[in-house]
Every structure is written in C-alpha cells, then in structure tokens.
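Researcher: I need the complex structure. Ligand is pyridoxal-5'-phosphate. Inputs:
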Amino acid sequence: MPTGARLSRAPGFSGYVSSGAETFAEHHFARQNDRILPDTMPRIASRVSQLTGEGALAVYSRAKELERAGRSIIHLELGEPDFHPAAPVVDALRDAAAAGRDRYVSTRGISELREAIADYLKRTRRLEVTPEQVLVAPGCKMALSLAMMALIEPGDEVLYPDPGFPIYPSFTRGLGATAVPFGLEGKHNFQPDLDEIAAKITTRTTALIFNSPNNPTGTVFNAEALRKIAELAEKHDLWILSDEIYARILFDGEYQSIWSLPGVAERTVIIDGFSKSFAMTGWRLGYAVAAKRVVDAMDLLVLNTFTCVAEFTQVAAIEALRDSTHAVDAMVAEYRKRRDLFVSGLNGIPGFRCQTPGGAFYAWVNIEETGLAAEDVAKLLLEEAGVAGIAGAAFGGGGKNYLRFSLVSARHSLEDALERMQRVASRWRAAVAR
Ligand code: PLP
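Model: Output:
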C-alpha cells in the first residue's frame, strides 16, 4: 500500500480497506507488509487465483441433482471409462498389499515398474526409453504438473491447443507463465495450423504442450504436424510436452509418438498413465518419460511433495501393462463400436455435425446450425432430454460452437441418448431448415 493511504473499516469486512483506488498488486503488498492489520485473515497465494477448474464437474453435479429428483440421466459428460481394470490387476493389488508391499519406496517409482514401462513403450510405440528416463506419479495430471514445475519459469510463454485439456492453460498461469493458445479447427480436420504456431512463437516461448489423440476433438496429430512441431521446437529451442494418455485408444493405424523423431527425445516429456487405457482412473497412476536430467529435477519435486506412489498400486500397474487378458484391445474394440454408432447417429440429428474421431473416447459435435448457443443446447439436452454433455467452451474459446460427449456408456444407452436428442431437436429444427 502506498504510504499515507488512509485505512478505514469496511462494513461486514474483517480487515481494513484503503480509501483510495488500490491495484491488485498494491492490495497484496499491503496485506503482506502492513503490520497494522492485526485482524486481516492470512492470504491465499495469488497463484491460486490463476487456476481454473474443469467444466465437466459442474455438469455432473447438476445431472446428479436431477437424478436425485427422480429423472433418468444418461451420463456422457465425464471422461471416465465405464470399464474397471482387468481381474488380474485387482488380484495383483490385493496380493501386493497382503505381502506387505506398503512401505515408502523409491521417489521415482519402483525399478520393476519403470522397467515395465520402458518395455511397454518399446512394444506398443516402438520407443527407445531406458528405465532411468521414467518417473512414476499419482496420475497423469501429477506427472504433467511436475514436468511443468520443472521446466516452466514465471514470464515464459507456453503454447497449448485450443480446444484442449483445460489444465494446460490453467497450470501454466498458476506458474506465473502466459498460456498462448493455438487453434484446432474443424476446417483443418482439427489438425494444428503450423503457420499459426510459428507466428505465435516469441523469444519468451519455452514450451509447447499437445495431446494426441486430443481431448476433446479425438484428433490424432498427423505425421506432418508432428514433424513440423519437432522442427519448430528445435529451431526455437522449446520443450515439447506430449500428453499421450489416449495413445492406446486409437481406431486406425499405429501410434506415432513425437519422441521417436530424430533429435526430439532430449527436449520432449511424454506424459501417460493408466487412467484411460487401463480404466484405472481412481488408482491415480501416471508417469513421465524424459531425459534423465529432467527426471532428476522432477524427482526432487516428488521428494518435496508426495514422496512416492503407493507400492501396491505400482505392483498392480506392472500387471496392467502385461495385459494378460488383452483387456485394452477389448475396450478399444468396444469404443470403436460406440464411436461408429454414436457419430453416425449424431450426424442424423438436425443441426449437429460430427467428424469421426481417430482416437480417444469423445464425440466433438458442431452445433452452429441449430442457431442456438452451445450452452443452451447443452442445457436443453440435460434438462429436457436427460442427456449430459459439456458445452465446448470448457475446452477453450475454440470450443464455442461445440458439445463434447464421452463414449463411456454402453451402446444401448448411447442409442437411447440419440433418440432423446432427436426428440428435443424439434426445438431448433425450424432454424436448421431456414
Ligand atoms: N490429460 C488429458 C488430456 C486428459 O484428458 C486427462 C483426463 O481427463 C488427464 C490428462 C488426467 O489424467 P489422470 O486422471 O491420470 O490424472
């Protein structure tokens, strides 16, 4: 607070307020340094005000409220598989806990699991990774935030996809950096526009985050996009954060990780985990793959925060990677059937247009032709049809005219959802006909 500013008690407020206009920074400076504010509450660090939540949870609570009031709701809002892990994975967890594998363990993950992850990436993605380049974390989000804490400085600029996973810009801002969106537009089949990315790189850009297959569009970045991102990263000395959490949920071809391109591994961090491919959301298991010096930095952050991931879940994760019952292929086959059924059904609803996603388990639907705002369509669908989806703005400005539905309900529920949507579509059918 500038010296000499007058303080007065504000009605209904426990501290004092300045009589003069006070900037945000001054306000915080005053609260930190002004010892004459004995009854002011201790402050929350300003970085928290930079963070935002995830839209899906708000829709989920409203949907639950409607269910409690007796309504039938088809939940297509959360990105949580309706499957559970394969039986041998649950058995492995039980056995590990019974065998006393419940102690503090290595901060970067038990060596058997890090070896299993390196081997799994070789088998499924043809990547050359050593166990010392792997760090295990409680969930992909934690692996991502450790990597971001290790690599991003305040004042840096970080490129991220829009639409995309909302945590990328949120956590970037939380670290005091600037989040710079690059578009994934329908007219480019949701592939990144590399000219746009190149134009947005400045001397302060230090990292580019992307996610392929993408949440929410389901786009698998093509070989040209990966090659050009790699070239730009090399030219401008950028970190690449490649979120590969949906790499196994791929409907055509073989997954290509940017890590495999020449010269890229040194500047790349792969983020992956067990939540989606192995239907283990609540187990909180993820990992990062990076150059050893990056893993060492992240390891120190682990030591200073959560110490280690529970050993018994790590032992079970080895069983998940072994996948002795071929559970992943079975789940992906089912997601493919759901995708085919749901996407063709959506394209039959007046005003809806949906491209076929190449991976992940989402349908990303353009609703522009309904003449309504996406929020209004989402509300009508939830309140009147009992179908819960998310208005696309939850994934960034590029999602303004879209809805996201997760393919995490059985096919008969998806058919039911399509019928319900057809019925409600009468509300906007006239606008589409014009
Ligand atoms: N990355 C992306 C792109 C996601 O969609 C999600 C979950 O929705 C996550 C990371 C978080 O994964 P986890 O639950 O393992 O933290």
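Model: Summary of the prediction. Residues 55-83+327-428 form a domain with the Aspartate Aminotransferase, domain 1 fold (CATH 3.90.1150.10).
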